[in-house]
Design goal:
single chain, mainly alpha, globular
Length: 230
């Protein structure tokens, strides 16, 4: 898990730099940074979503995932936990802390580089992809922290669980996922990031966490699709 540990260190360093910059920036510049991150998330999500080779699998994964997430009130529960953490650590602005925490986690973890990098390190003990991702996340965390504050730094906790867990799972199960599966999971993640970008720009109020179960159903539906006579 060297790649994930380096990734966490890079985000902490980048967030620390962002906090120093944030203190010296007027509110109007912070707002512009916030809007730029929203636009960047839209572009990133679109580029990932367009990689899909099976729109039917994408749609069904998102529908079933959203239904289960909504029924389980996943977003409300995670938001509540994040708000509680924000009240203790966010200097009274729990809403901003929560937005930074959840936005950063999604940007750092929902992507093909996260999945490919974690699997590559778990299966082949090669952390090169995650080290490259660490450099990118380190710089991204500077801008994110300028926009959202200290909540960005605490996103390393779910990142450790998700990315580190995926690495350990890959080491345990071996070569369990073909490139086609990774492409479709990444594409569904792109749609989720599109929704996140729209929320950041205050165009929509989609409950993003409720959509995350779609990432689990994508490989299942893609496997089942392989049995259809098409």
């Amino acid at each position: 898990m060297i790649g994930t540990i380096v990734n966490i260190i890079a985000i902490i360093i980048g967030s620390s730099i962002g906090l120093l910059i944030h203190k010296n920036l007027p509110d109007r510049l912070v707002k512009v940074t916030f809007q730029i991150m929203g636009l960047f998330t839209l572009v990133l999500g679109m580029s990932m979503a367009l990689e899909s080779n099976n729109l039917l699998v994408m749609v069904f994964s998102l529908i079933v995932g959203a239904l289960i997430g909504t029924a389980g009130r996943f977003d409300d529960k995670v938001q509540g936990l994040s708000d509680q953490l924000g009240k203790r650590l966010g200097g009274g602005n729990s809403q901003k802390f929560s937005k930074g925490f959840l936005t950063s986690f999604l940007l750092f973890c929902v992507g093909s580089m996260t999945i490919l990098g974690a699997i590559e390190e778990g299966m082949n003990d090669n952390a090169d992809l995650l080290l490259i991702k660490s450099l990118m996340d380190g710089f991204s965390s500077i801008a994110l922290t300028v926009a959202f504050g200290i909540g960005v730094m605490f996103s390393v906790i779910p990142l450790l669980i998700f990315q580190g867990g995926l690495t350990l799972l890959a080491a345990w199960l071996g070569s369990f996922m073909s490139p086609d599966y990774i492409t479709e999971i990444s594409a569904v993640g792109g749609v989720i990031l599109l929704a996140l970008g729209l929320n950041l720009l205050e165009i929509t109020k989609i409950k993003i966490i409720d959509l995350l179960p779609a990432l689990i159903f994508t490989p299942l539906f893609l496997w089942l699709y392989g049995f259809l006579p098409v």
